[in-house]
Amino acid sequence: MAGRIMAGPARPASADATTPTTPGPSDLLENKLEQLNSLLWCFYGAGDGWFQDAGEAHRENLLWIASDLAREAVALFQETSTVR
Description:
Elements lengths: L24 H21 L4 H4 L2 H28 L1
C-alpha cells in the first residue's frame, strides 16, 4: 500500500534560496484539511473501536482538536476567497 503524502514544513524555493518560503493561506488551508482528514479517519475510518475505548475525557479532547482544525480551515478558506 502506498503511503500518504502529507504537506510538510516550508522549504526553500530553490537550492539557491537561503530562507524558507512562507506558506500562503491556500497551503495552510491544505495542511489543516489534511490534518483534520487524518484525525477524523482515526475516529471513524479505522473502524477498530479505539475511539470509544479512549474514555470520555480523551474523546472530548480529540473532538476539541477536530473543532479547532475545522474553525481554522474555515478562516483560511475565507482568507483565500478574498484574495481571488
